[in-house]
């Protein structure tokens, strides 16, 4: 991968984790966790449950540890306790797992149907999941977009390598068209089936 090199995949993953953490921290009270999101039929709480479960699943695939206690693709919409603490559990597990992966590992287990991938692509897949759900939560709660052009470029490179097979599983909606003048963030979101706002 030209953009998500062995020297940069750790940075990209950290940026995506930070974006998700910041979006969750920015959710206010007054029913904000019940707000509808760009993920069709899912509330903020359900997106958080899904995103946290996905991070735990990546960690479990790498380490052989515990998998999510709840199906990330059928989130209940109910979290006991602080949502931020709930997310921290997943992000901490993910970060610890990725710390055990060599920079240039050729076969990293992932919780995706494609099977093991090179470290840069596997970490990129994990980062893509965190980043897009950070955007979902931010948009649902009136926050600025956490995605930057610097993140969008390598994430788009990852997306074009992994997303198409995942659409059949309902992980991503069909891609949307963009104009020729669309910026990198818009292109990424549209490719993932999200309409930038």
TrEMBL record:
UniProt-recorded name of the protein: TIGR03086 family protein
Coiled coil start-end: none
Segments forming domain Mycothiol-dependent maleylpyruvate isomerase metal-binding: 13-138
Gene3D superfamilies in UniProt: dinb family like domain
Lineage of source species: Bacteria, Bacillati, Actinomycetota, Actinomycetes, Streptosporangiales
Position of the signal peptide: none
């Amino acid at each position: 991968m030209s953009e998500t090199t062995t020297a940069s995949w750790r940075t990209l993953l950290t940026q995506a984790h930070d974006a998700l953490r910041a979006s969750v921290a920015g959710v206010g009270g007054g029913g904000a966790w019940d707000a509808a999101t760009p993920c069709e039929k899912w509330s903020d709480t359900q997106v958080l449950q899904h995103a946290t479960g996905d991070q735990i699943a990546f960690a479990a695939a790498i380490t052989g540890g515990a998998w999510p206690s709840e199906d990330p693709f059928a989130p209940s919409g109910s979290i006991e306790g602080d949502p931020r603490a709930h997310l921290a559990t997943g992000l901490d597990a993910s970060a610890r797992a990725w710390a055990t992966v060599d920079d240039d590992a050729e076969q990293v287990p992932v919780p995706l149907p494609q099977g093991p991938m090179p470290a840069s692509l596997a970490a990129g897949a994990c980062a893509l999941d965190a980043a897009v759900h950070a955007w979902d939560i931010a948009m649902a709660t009136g926050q600025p977009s956490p995605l930057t052009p610097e993140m969008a470029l390598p994430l788009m490179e990852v997306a074009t390598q992994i997303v198409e097979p995942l659409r059949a599983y309902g992980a991503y909606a069909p891609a949307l068209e963009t104009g020729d003048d669309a910026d990198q963030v818009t292109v990424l979101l549209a490719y993932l089936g999200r309409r930038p706002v």
